[in-house]
Amino acid sequence: MAADEITALLSRLSLPSLPERAPDTRARTLQDGQHPRVDAGGPAYAVFVGREPGVYVSWAECLVQVKGVAHNSYKVYSNFAGAERAYTAAEARGLTCTAEERASDIRRVILHQRMEPQDLALCLHFLDDPTSKAMAYGASRWYVVYAGLQPGVYLTYHECSFSTSGYPGAKHESFDSLDGAIGAMERALASGRAVKFVVQSDM
Q1: Quick one: which of 143, 175, 177 has its CA closest to 162?
Q2: Nearest-CA neighbor of 30 among 105, 90, 72, 70?
Q3: Which of 28, 70, 74, 89 has its CA 20 to 30 A from that of 83?
Q4: Which InterPro entries match (predicted)?
């Protein structure tokens, strides 16, 4: 029986007609290097580290990617465009990976390299980086990585987390002012507490 015939029959029986099927606006994750846009309202979730990194338009989908995943990283944004902008920026910086890749990197740390006071410019580099600003998206805290993949001052918790989460001996701290964060970084460099973790490269 055709759909219009079913609707007519339900109408005669004084029952509600079949609802129209809503379009599928679920954001798909990366496939073949492409990240398709979707026109979806409401919040969206950027999964930076999880089972399958990408942008999702529901908490349920995001949860599938991060629940039970050690050292996962994600953030909710007010709309899909903001989440996609942040995810694309993070991907360009190499700040996205699967859970398996993350675990592999943690196992491959081979050296702790002390940084010197003259490295301050490097530690502050990402404060003015366009990709960092895209990820920050209105953030109002600053994060200092004292020991991790790249010691420095960051605009977003994800950058901080990517450099520290899961790595034995990693240290970080958050600040509510930029001056406070920079001062802490300067003191860490002067006292020898700024340490870069070197990961063995793939052969």
Answers
A1: 143
A2: 90
A3: 70
A4: Ribosomal_bL9/RNase_H1_N (IPR009027), RNase_H1_N (IPR011320), RNase_H1_N_sf (IPR037056)
